[in-house]
Amino acid sequence: MASAASPPAQQLRQGVAPLRAGEGYSFLLRRLHSLTGIVPIGLFLLEHFISNAEAFKGAAAYGAQVKFLNSLPFVVGLELFGIWIPILYHGLYGIWIWYRGDTNVASYPWTGNWMYTAQRWTGIIALAYMAQHTYDLRFTGVHLPSHPMLAFAKVQNEFQNLWMVAFYAVGIIAASWHFCYGLWLFAAKWGITTGARARRWFGYVCLLLALGLISIGAASMYGFLSHPVEPLNPSAPETIVMTK
């Protein structure tokens, strides 16, 4: 008796494979993408929010924090290998995942689908925000590593444009959401939170963390906006008096 013909092998479209063991190099790339979002990028984000909160105290406190960070040993290597290369990988691979993904929120308006969509779009917004923020503050105008006490004035100079104020606000919200929901995904994918109950309660923790980061970011922006505008003059002595 003739046997039934074997069905042709399914043709799989090349792209980002699901996060499962035995799926080739994509599994490793996704795991690395998930890990870098927490360590070191997430830790850097927390440090950055805390450091920027010094702006609430005024120009002297903020300048002192910038000076301290730039005085750390091996600061160039720390930034290159601990911040910029991980962000570059996480951002570019995240764009690839976003490009290959299919949310279908109109056809399937499930909570998870909306969360997936929000995670991808907030990642794009946060990446654009970090690119603009880094370029303007590090590679244009006053060189802050050489003039750290002018950092407050440089940010204030950006805030003279209301569009930049709005862009900063959107960027802070996007970065906070993306990190905190990414933390929730990380705990679920890496087996830290097992079961629906654990994931639900950790979701509340991540939501509170997101709201806390947004509040810290808002306080930082208020510091830049509420204090008198500092002169942005590299030739002037960098002695800033703390005002009440």
TrEMBL record:
**Coiled coil, from the record:** none
Q: Which UniProt keywords apply?
A: Membrane, Oxidoreductase, Transmembrane, Transmembrane helix
Transmembrane segment boundaries: 71-99, 165-189, 201-225
Q: What is its EC number?
A: 1.3.5.1
> Per its UniProt record, what InterPro entries does this chain match?
Cytochrome_b-558 (IPR011138), SQR/QFR_C/D (IPR034804)
A Gene Ontology molecular function term for this protein is: succinate dehydrogenase (quinone) activity
One GO cellular component term, please give it.
membrane
Which domain of life, per UniProt?
Bacteria
Q: Which top-level enzyme class is recorded in the Swiss-Prot or TrEMBL entry?
A: oxidoreductase
What's this protein's name? Succinate dehydrogenase, cytochrome b558 subunit
* Species the sequence originates in: Candidatus Sulfotelmatobacter kueseliae
Upper classification of the source organism reads: Bacteria, Pseudomonadati, Acidobacteriota, Terriglobia, Terriglobales
